[in-house]
Amino acid sequence: YKRTLDGPSEAVGENVIRLKWTAGDEISVVNVTTGKALGGNLRAVASGASSIFTGTVIGQINANDKLAFIYPAQNYLSEQVFTPIDIDYSVQSGTTPDLVMIAHHTVAESSNSFENINVGFSFQMSFMRLNLSQLPVSTKVNSVTMNNVNDHIQLSISGGQMISTTSGISNRVNYTAQVTTDARGAQSILMGVLPSPSTTSRTISAT
User: Fold this and answer.
1) What is the pTM of this model?
2) How distant, in Å, are the alpha carbons of 148, 174, 200 from that of 203?
3) What is the percentage of the chain residues whose pLDDT exceeds 70?
4) Which residues have CB under 8 Å from 65's CB, separation 6+?
5) pLDDT tens digits, residue range 113-142?
6) Is 50 exceeded by the pLDDT of residue 1?
7) Which is it for strands 203-206 and 161-167: parallel, antiparallel or unpaired?
8) Cβ-count burial of 207 within 10 angstroms (0-12 exposed, 13-18 middle, 19+ buried)?
9) First vs last Cα of the chain: how many Å apart?
10) pLDDT tens across 151-191, in order?
11) Which residues pair with 85 in a beta bridge?
């Protein structure tokens, strides 16, 4: 799913993140069994919470091979050995950054065709809303940093499975234009956060 940030929700009085595809969104396909990424991508036909993806991918698929579907799509022009994908969330814009989603499916049909496969994506990160308060009124904020959190995610093949691992030190939201605290000296920050050890203390700073 691709993320969009909808307007205020009457139910909770806050912005609500809706999950949906946009027509033209693309996903890549990796044959986990052979360890190769397939050339080309599949493309969403329509917008919505679910969508049919169509297209042509180049490479070998054998009966019962395990396929991993990856979003955001990678630029595989032809079949090639899959190398780990590393995505950096250490610097963000404060809007909804792309999430990494992945699903596995075992192909149980002929090696030259796979159709009508139902794929359910597993979300690899979350959004956190940070409400800064007790700041001077009309303070200009350039960036907000959260320390002691993972800021990189890597997708790789291990033990016949596509897995995700995280690492890093901090996430930082940088604003292209300064934001200003409100009349209460408050500011709300939206930050994408990867899984991190729950026993680690966090510190948040604004500049």
Assistant:
1) 0.80
2) 7, 17, 10
3) 82
4) 31, 32, 33, 34, 106, 107, 111
5) 667 788 877 777 777 878 888 888 888 888
6) no
7) unpaired
8) exposed
9) 33
10) 998 989 998 888 888 998 898 888 877 888 888 888 888 88
11) 155
**The two three-digit tokens of residue 68, written as one number:** 């991993």
Per the CB < 8 A criterion, the answer to whether 104 and 117 are in contact is no
Residue matched to tokens 């404060």: 94
Find out whether 38 and 60 touch, Cβ atoms under 8 Å.
Answer: no
The shares of helix, strand and coil residues in the chain, as percent rounded to the nearest 5, are 0, 50, 50
What type of residue is 30? V
Residue that is written with structure tokens 């030190």 in the block: 169
Residue type, 159: G
Amino acid at 206: A
Task: Please report where in the chains the tokens 């991918």 appear, as a residue.
Answer: 57
Three-class DSSP category at 44: strand
